[in-house]
Amino acid sequence: MININAKWRILAAASVAAASLAACHNDHGNNSASTPKPPPPAPVDFSTFAKNAFAANENTTPISLDGVTFTFDVDNDPTAFDALVMSGTY
Is the pTM of this model over 0.90? Predict the structure, then answer.
């Protein structure tokens, strides 16, 4: 059984630890409001991207698609990619 003085010491140590953790925050003057956010990526026409992808060969460096926003400029044109498919370059 723990005596009363030991309980008070444990409680005091826990209180100091909790207060220390509550006071800590990763501010260091780096305010998120002061750092500008990068501009959003410019939209890329999907037809242009597809034509460039078909023109690439097997030794071409892969292109990252992270953050790429496509605009589908040929939505209503069912024959838009016929030349690429018929060329047999896929």
Answer: no
